[in-house]
Hints:
The complex is a heterotrimer. By secondary structure, chain A is mainly beta.
Amino acid sequence: MSNFSNFPKVVYPGQLICPEYDTEQNKEGQDIVYRFICGNGTKLLDYKYNTTTVKAITATLLGDVKVEEEITVRNEGGEESEEKDKDIDETPDIIEDSDANNSSEVEKFSDRIIRVMKVSVVQDNKFSKNALVDDKFANNLPKEGDIVLTRVTRISLQRANVEILAVENQNVPVDSGIGSNGSGIVAACGGSGASTFSVSQVSSDLGETFRGLIRSQDVRATERDRVKIIDSFKPGDIVRAQVLSLGDGTNYYLTTARNDLGVVFAKAANGAGGLMYALDWQTMIAPSTGISEKRKCAKPF
Amino acid sequence: MNVQDRRRLLGPGNAKPIAFASSLEPETEPLKAEEVAKKDGIPSLSIKSDIIENCNGSTLIESDEFSIVTSVYGPKSIRGSFTSQGTISIQLKNGIVEKYQTNELKEVASWLVGIFNSVVNLEKYPKSGIDIFVNLVIDKTNDISKLIPFIVMSTCLALVDSGIEMIDLTTAAEIDGNVISFTKGGEEIVGFWKDNGDAVFNDEDFTSILGRCKEQYINYKSLMVNYLLQGKKK
Amino acid sequence: MTDVEETVEIQPISFPPEVFARISPELSLQRHLALGLRPSLRRFDEFRDIEINEDSLSRFNASHMMNEDSQNNILGSNVLKCGKTFVITSITGGIIEDTSTSLDEVDIGEKELLDIVEQEDSLNKYTSVYPVVEVERGRVGACTDEEMTVSQKLFDSLLHSRIIPKDSLKVQTGIRTTDENGVSQIIYPDEVNNVDGNDVDDSYKHVMPRKKWSYVLYAKIVVYSRTGPVFDMCWNSLMYALQSTRLPRAFIDERATDLKMTVRMKGRSTTIREAYDILCDPKKSLPLTLNDSNLAYASSFGIIDLDPEVALEEARKQEDKQEDVEMDKIDSILLADIDTEAEESSIYSTISLINNLKGDFKQLSIIGAGSRITPNMIRNAITLSKCRSQDLSQKIKK
C-alpha cells in the first residue's frame, strides 16, 4: 500500500493523481498490479512523458482523493455482480486481512494479482462532516438508475409529467454505513437517513429544472395496464422515482414500479387541504378530515 | 435607448446624459508609467468565492483597477433535442460604468466559450447547459485585453466553486495586447486574443511574447492553486 | 438536523433539512415556526443587519480611486449588504431643458394663476429619480415582473415621500470664457458672489443664458445573490446613495451665450435650442440638497397562520404539559424582514412600511391574503419599523 501514500491528498482540477497502472510486491513476493479506474471527479487523460504517451488519472474537481478497491465477483450464473467498496484510509493491515479472506475474489494470474482500484475525488468535507447533503447539483445530474425526488406538474391519461427537485445521490460515502449494511443495490431509503441527496439550486418556479415523465405502465409493477394516473398521482405531489433512461431532449423517463417508490408528500383536495399520510400503498388519508384519497404511495417505512 | 422601452422607467426622452468637459490637465500620463513598471508582475489581487447565494458557484476578483464578479448557473436543463454533452454560454456585462459596447463584450464572450469548451468536462453534462455571467463591476483599465486574464481566472475559479468538472485549470496572460490562454502547465494554448498593441510580424517576436505570457500564466496559475488549496484547508 | 429526527416520527422516509425545505417549503417553515424559530434562525421580530459602503464609486468622492477615471459619470453610489444579498446602487444624471416657461416671461395674471395651481399641487414641487432595478438571477432577456414592479414602486414612493425638491435639481449654470491667450476659465456667478461679497452678479447677467436646465437623476440598482424580497433593500440603498449624491457644476461656453442673444431676437426655435451645449465641470460639484426631515427607510413584515396540524408531536406534547395558554391563542404571527425561499413562498400576507425617524409614514401597504392581521400586529409593525429606520439612519456618516 506504500504507493498510495504518494498520491496527493487534496487535488484541484487538472492535477495528476496517478498513472493508469502501477505495480508493487507484497510480502510473499507476489507482484500486485494495480489498475486504477476513474471514479467521480476524475478523468483518464493522455500525458506525454519523454516522448511516450502515458495514460493517467487526472482530477476534475477540487476535493479530497479517495481510493477504493472495486472487486467484481462473477457467480456461476454470471448475472449477479457484487460491488464492495473498501476505504483505503483504513490501515494497510486490515486490507491485507480482507485480502486473504476474499482471495477467491481476486483474479489471479500465476503469481500476479490484479487489483482494480477506483480513484475518485470527494468534494468539500460535507460528506464526512455532519451534513448529509451535497447541495451542489452540478455533479449529480440524474443518471440511469438514480433515485430522484420530483414534483408532479401535470397529469394526463397516459403519463404524469414531473419536475426533478433533487437526486438521491448514489455515491454514498463508505462511512455512512450502507455499503456494509447491504450488498447488491444500495438499499434505498435505508431507514437511517443515511442516504444522501442533492438539491437543485435552481428555483423550481422558474421552469428550469430537469423534467421527467412517468408513463402509466411504469407506475407499478403489477396490473400495469390497469393503472389510472388520476388514481396514482395528483399535481403538486412529491414523488420518489427512479430514472429509467435519459429520455429525450426535455424529459427523463422515470418509474415508480417498486415498493419504496411513489408519493411521499401529498396534500388533500388537490393541494387545498392538509397533509395526508399513507394508509397503505394506494391510499392516503388526511387526519384532520378523515377523507382518504388514492395515490401510489411509497412504502411508508 | 432610442427606442422607448416601456418596461423600464427611463425618464424623459429629451434629457441628455451628463457630458463632462475634458479635463484640462492630462491625467493619463503618470498612470502609464506605473503600468509599465508592473506590466509583467502580478497585481495584488483579492479573491473570494461563494459570494452569491442564488447560483451554483461564484467568484469575486478585485484589485485596485477592477472588480469582477462571476457567477455560474447550472447545469440547467435545456429545451430542444437531446444533446449528449453540456453546452456553455457566457455573458459579459458592463458594470456600473457602461464602458464597453455590447458587440465588443459579445466577441470576448464567444472567445471565452471556446476556451472553456476545451477545459470543462462536458461529457458529464448531457442535455444541460451551463450559464456563466461575468460582471465587470468596476473597471478602470479602459482596455478589455488587460482584463481578459482576470475574466478567465474568475470564470475558472467560479466553475471550480460550482463543482463542475474541469479537465484543467486555465488562465490567460497578457503582454502588449496579446492575450494567450494556456492549459496543461503551458504546454497547450487554448485561446489567443489580439485586439490592439503593436502587430507581431516575425516568429522571434512572437516566441518571446509567448515565453513571457507563459511565465505570467504559470504565476497566475500558482496563485489560483494556492487559493484553492488554502480554501480547502479551512 | 431536527427535521430529520422529527420527520421520522410521522413518516419514516427521512429527508435532510435542505431537501425537506426544497420539496415542501411550507411544511418546513411551519415546523420551524412551531419550534419558535425561523428557517434563517432569526427571531420572529429580528431584522437582518445591514452593512453599507457609501459612495465608494462616484466621481466626486475624492478619497477613492474612481475619481481619476475620466469616463466615470456616477454622481452618487451605495453598496448595501444585507445577509447574503448585496445591492449596488449608482446614481447617474442627465440634463433636461426646462420647457415650462420661466416665470419672468409670464405676465402677472398668468403667474398668479400658476401660483394657485402650484399651491394646490404641492407634489409638483418634488421629483423622483428614474430607477432601473436589475436582479441577477442567471438569465438574460427582458426584465422580470419583479424588476418592473420594484422600479415603479421606488419611483412612486420617492416622489410621494417628497424627498427631492425640484429646486435642488435646478442647474446653476456657469460660463466658460476663453481669454486672448487661449486660457479657458469657468466662472460660476454664485461662487464669484461669495468670494467678493459684492454684487458681481449683475456684470454676468447679460452673458448668462436665459434658458433653465435641470438635472434628471437615474438610479441603476443591481441586486446580487437574491434570497428574498428585494424592495426594502433597494429603497434603503437608494436612500443612502441619494444622500451621497453630488451634482456636477454645469456651464455653457461663452460663445453659446453670444449665440443665445441673437436667438432671443428671433424667438425660440427648436433648431437653435440644440446649439446650447451644456457641459459639466469635471472637478467641481455641489451636494444634492434633500428634504432631510423626509428621509425614510423601508421595512417589511409577513404574517403567517400557524398550522396546528403540522406542529410537531413533541411541541404539542410540551404545550399540553405546560398548559401554555398563550401558545394556544396565537394562531398567526408577525415575521420581520422576510427572507429565504420557504418564507417567501409560503407567506402571502404582508405589511410594507416606509417611515422616517419620527415614525411618520411615507408609504404603507397592507396586504391581507388569508392570514388574520390584528390591529396589535400593525401597531407592532409600526413600532418595529420606527426602530429600524432609526437604526438604519445611523449607518450613514454625516
